[in-house]
């Protein structure tokens, strides 16, 4: 063990972050357990007993989730083996591919429409949500753009280029419609630009210009219903506030140690989306305050290790990639938990590594593999600022102070 924490030995003596890998595996194990608990409901006969001939149905979701998990582990290994220079080379092509896939969901027969939203592509034997890949691709392309020596933090034109790309992607995602995905993409982009040292006034100008469009989107009847339900869910207990009320009941029922694994009552057709967007409420009911505290600590640990990996990165590109991917995962976890606990209006975002859902799981493991690769601290030589030239907001502020000093 060295002074920077536990490590995993890599090729040529280089190392990867063992703590991050352990956190990801623990979250994934928790996901397998909770997905099974939320979906293993045996059919009941009129006499009150389980229907024996359909007993295999209780493993359907678990089998799909485990199969996706193995594919995701393979993707993590693939991205762990990929050098940052190679990742940088394919950043823009991957962004273009993700946009193409986003447009493909509108092709009849290829796109899948569920609950009024057309967000998925039909890929045997399952489906894939391109918006998840778009977030990953946006982080990589932003990292490639921000790390070029030609990027000027003081230039409004340089700021507008990634902003226009973000708006184009958001426009396609909102057509599906997927407000949560578009909102997440915007948060990731603005956060990376801010941490890269972009002038705050540029960001404020952009937010002010987009505010009317945001208000118009929120005025849609079903979004307005969600907003009103968020303000007072108990006023609409059988309507738009039903899901949030049931989430509160699940969390409140759990108490300190929970009702016991598999003993949830809210999952018996009371709490919608219990295996996906609201799986954190199930954790609270079955495992109580102790269970949700462990999950929160794991995500905090993921954030801390991700920031440490960014701080030890050997190039500006790796620094921004590690920063962006850490923000992408922890921000989604934060929003999901805030939705379940009633701190923000309801949005359709899964809990990373835990919720049932192949697209999110696959992309999150791709991100984890990339972070593990960067944590190996491989020397990177492709004409970018090194770790001794600290990129980001502090560097930008320091440069502006030096320019103001009298000679």
Describe this structure in words.
With 407 residues, the protein is mainly alpha-helical. The chain has one domain (7-41, 55-404). Helix content is 61%, strand content 5%. The chain has helices at 18-39, 60-80, 84-89, 91-104, 130-146, 156-174, 179-195, 200-218, 221-231, 242-254, 279-311, 316-340, 358-375, 393-404, and strands spanning 7-9, 15-17, 111-114, 117-123, 126-128. The chain is globular. 41% of the residues are buried.
* Spatial arrangement of strands, main beta sheet: 3-4-5
Helix/strand-derived category reads: mainly alpha
Largest sheet geometry? 3 strands, antiparallel
Assembly type of the shown chains? single chain
The N- and C-terminal alpha carbons lie at a distance of: 48 Å
Instruction: Count every helix, treating DSSP H or I runs of 4 or more residues as helices.
Output: 14
Query: How are helices and strands ordered from N to C?
Result: EEHHHHEEEHHHHHHHHHH
Coarse shape: globular
Tell me the helix content: 55-70%
**Which ranges are low-confidence, i.e. pLDDT below 50, for 5 or more consecutive residues?**
1-13, 42-53, 381-390
Work out the count of structural domains.
1
Mean pLDDT over all positions: 84
